[in-house]
Amino acid sequence: MEIYTVRPNDTVDSIAAQYGVPPQSIIYSNQLAYPYPLAIGQALLVDTGAPPQSPLPAAYAGGYAYPFIQPEILEETLPYLSGLFIFSYGFTPEGALVPPNLDDTFLLTQAKSYGTAPILTLTPLDSSGHFNNRLISQLIHDDAAIQQLIDNLSYQLTERGFEGVDIDFEYILPEDRLPFADFVRQVRTAINALGYPVSVALAPKTSDTQTGLLYEGKDYALLGEAADYVLLMTYEWGYTYGPPMAVAPLNKVRQVVEYALTKIPAGKIHLGIPNYGYDWTLPFVQGASKATTIGNVEAVQIAVSHDAAIQFDETAQSPYFNYSLEGSVHEVWFEDVRSLSAKFGLVKEYGLRGMGYWQIMRLFRANWLLLAGTFSIT
Asked: I need a surface site. Which of 8, 99, 121, 163 has the fewest CB within 10 A?
């Protein structure tokens, strides 16, 4: 796989001729829309057909999906995934499981047909869709509720065919730090006895003393010991209500990884990767502005339609651009094959077990092709 950055006067045909590949190959890999206009600064993945010069390193690849994912997107993505993390199962204070609103049976069936492990994602989401830390507290301080929840999780694995549990609890109260880690350990013991792993999602910390409700209840060392694997949620620096910036700037992601490695073995760590970008209307006003979530392919289409040149921030290793619409200036940050290649480089550099994508609801074909050209997915 080669990455080519579009220059003025480039066309799909001229780039294809330069690499000696069919134009349709570039069109397909990069999901280009007819009549295939390009944006200056756009990064294209070019499959030259050359075999790798050495064996590809092994890596785990997980992806989160809701039951309303489009079937064609799921089918195209599953061949590249080790695990499909089905989002999500809630619970009551008494330990009863609350399934997704839509039937997820087809996700389990499809995952298994591709040899991908379906993973039950457990969240403390309330009826309004928000993380409820009081619900977490009620559960983890009630031994009977924990046992009931473990029994219900075990049923999902033995009777429905899930092949693992992922615990995605956020905004844990600081005083629940130790009980939460013990809860994860109890779930792991029971699920391991069935032959399956337990993972836990970790907010992106850079120190033991990092303050904030997102961080204080997550003890990297304890949770790294309690779970089989962890997912570093290394995204959302740029987010819906924040100022324009890269969603997952590599310099910030690296800081999280380096801290995590002081607490957790590399072979237990999955790097979180965002499969989306944001579009901000300027000027940004804290408390009033709200960015729009967009897909990575959509971001490039916006640049093309507004004749905007795509820039690349070398520090963040992330693409961005500005455009004008109806008298307002917009700023867009997203992921492309350059930013993804940099993140894959971190996985290799630090010997991490692999990566986890939030989320796979939008198809970004170039990502999956680049992944398959970089790692042997296990």
From this structure: 8
